[in-house]
Amino acid sequence: MSRIEPGPAILPLEFKSVGYRVGDQSLLEEVSFRLEAGPRTVILGPNGSGKSLTLRLAQGLLRPSSGRVAWRVENRLEQTMVFEQPVLLRRSARANVEYALALHGEPRGRRRERAREVLAQTGLESIADRRARVLSAGEQQRLALARAWAIRPQVLFLDEPTAALDPPATRRVEDLIREIGASGTKIVMTTHDLGQARRLAEDVLFFCAGRLLEVSPAADFFESPGSREGRAFLEGELSW
Amino acid sequence: MEDVTQAFATAFRMIVSLDPVLLEIVGLSLEVSLGALVLAAAVGMPLGGAVALFRFPGRRGAIVLLNALMGLPPVVIGLLVYLVLSRSGPLGDLGWLFTPTAMVVAQFVLITPIVAALTRQVMEDLWEEYEFQLRSLGAGPLRAIPTLLWDGRFQLVTALLAGFGRAIAEVGAVIIVGGNIAHATRVMTTAIALETSKGDLALALALGLVLLGLALAVNAAASLAAEYARGHDS
């Protein structure tokens, strides 16, 4: 049996008074929230507010200095992350996807078929055999999404996935994010693009200066933010 | 002066006519040094990768040691391998002393630290770039080592060529453990030393020219590999 058949549900994910310090500088303070399966969650906030740090702590790439990050079931193989500038392996697009499948225990005979399937879903089938690192920025980001999607994660973290892309490439990536979310994967992403947040967010976590100020449905946040900082952010009075 | 000119002429003739004695010595040299290189790659590359990727107590000391071992004097290695393989040594029963196998062992000991130390540097740079991505895909350091060895293959060719260059050119270790026995353990460097002392400059020069050619070829290959690596980085 394939290792990437769905395992036990790993959500909810809970941050319990999580803090993160580097030296004597506090980058995240007393952050607590709970993420359930389902709606796409977008983490918003100005630069240096702790958005990307929160994703890295959630994914287990960093350990909190205080507090606890708790999954319902601890299983690193059921969640993955796509970065603003994804690191693609020095091999073909298809081999990048097959590599992720191999890590997740997909039998060799089924890797090629799954890779073909996911590359077709992401519109990359025609460039499957090209070297991943010579693809355009948009294609590289879609490949990173394809590689993550191939393993059918329960949770996919996206750290500003379109920050380096032009508008058409951004649209294609957004469509893909919706599709991945619709396939049952919980999306948790950060973005600097307020328009994108309005298009994609169903829930919002709003951070400012290392503190979580709001957790609310997206419609509520964009209509009437509950914090002074949230209002200032939406009005462009806080830098991001 | 006439003798030297004559010796050069004879040396060229030996090379061009593929003199059997010359070929035998060059063949054994390549066999021994490539054998040592294969073993050094099999041990040194994973070792370098492990030191680069794993965090363990004493890691900094291990790196210093690895770097220091790059400069090991060949005669000291020859002496140590001799002691281990000599009849009264711990591996004396193997009967390897004064055989090409002993020479492979000595060169393996000599170049493994070079391969390992250079591999560590390449792998550490790659890990800095790849760590979060690979960990987020579910690969820990152990699984990441073969991935990075493959992705860094063009840079790592330079490490292998450096090891090969050191092995093929050394004389101290192989003369101690090989004994420089004609048709058995005589390699280019030991033959050059012997023939020069005997006054047979022609064979010594011919071997010297081949060795020089190999050194140039290794350096050219290293440059090409480095250039190719840069081309494949993007």
Describe the structure.
- The complex is a heterodimer of chains A (240) and B (234).
- Chain A contains eight helices and nine strands.
- With 240 residues, chain A is an alpha/beta fold.
- In chain A, the strands form two sheets. A six-stranded mixed beta sheet of chain A has the order 5-6-7-3-8-9, with helices on both faces. Chain A has a three-stranded antiparallel beta sheet with strand order 2-1-4.
- The mean pLDDT of chain A is 92.
- Chain B is mainly α.
- Chain B contains ten helices and no strands.
- Chain B has helices at 2-16, 20-53, 59-69, 74-85, 100-136, 141-151, 153-169, 172-178, 188-198, 201-231.
- The model of chain B has no long low-confidence stretch (mean pLDDT 93).
- Classes of the chains: A alpha/beta (240), B mainly alpha (234).
- The A-B interface holds A 56, 59-61, 76-77, 80-81, 83, 86-87, 89-91, 99-100, 103-104, 131, 133-134, 147-148, 151, 157 and B 129-130, 132-139, 143, 147, 150-151, 232-234.
Helix share, percent of chain B: over 70%
Major sheet description of chain A? 6 strands, mixed
Main β-sheet of chain B: number of strands, strand sense, barrel status?
none
The number of helical runs of chain A is 8
* Cα distance spanning the termini of chain A: 46 Å
Could you tell me how far the N terminus lies from the C terminus of chain B, measured between alpha carbons in angstroms? 55 Å
Number of helices of chain B: 10
From the spread of the alpha carbons, the general shape of chain B counts as: globular
* Morphology call of chain A: globular
Name the beta content range of chain B.
under 5%
Summarize model confidence as the mean pLDDT of chain A: 92
Spatial extent as radius of gyration of chain A: 18 Å
Q: Largest chain-chain contact? A: A-B, 25 and 17 residues
